[in-house]
Design brief:
Layout lengths: L12 H7 L4 H14 L4 H13 L3 H14 L3 H16 L4
Helix pairs in contact: 2-3, 3-4, 4-5
Length: 94
């Protein structure tokens, strides 16, 4: 593991490799720190949502996806986050 406090971006190969093998708790802690450092980075919010989903906390995952959607800078990212939000919303128990 690199000693750098800055995580690679979520879309990079290094970023996805860095998350492999980590527990959802550890991922949550890592990305929460990154959000403190860079609150408008949509990718950090996305990965925090992934961590919350892994912990079974669907409401926090949804909230982080909303922030990722609101702070994303491209139409492709917005479409991806919107689709993931729709999936969370449609799988909720009535």
């Amino acid at each position: 593991m690199s000693s750098s406090p800055i995580l690679p971006t979520a879309t990079s190969t290094r970023g996805s490799r860095r998350c492999r093998g980590r527990t959802s708790l550890r991922r949550r802690d890592l990305f929460a720190k990154e959000i403190d450092r860079a609150p408008y980075n949509h990718e950090f919010h996305y990965w925090l949502a992934v961590a919350y989903a892994g912990l079974g906390d669907r409401e926090r995952a949804r909230k982080e996806l909303v922030v990722a959607l609101e702070t994303s800078s491209t139409s492709n990212d917005r479409a991806m986050y919107a689709a993931k939000l729709d999936r969370i919303r449609s799988s909720r128990a009535p």
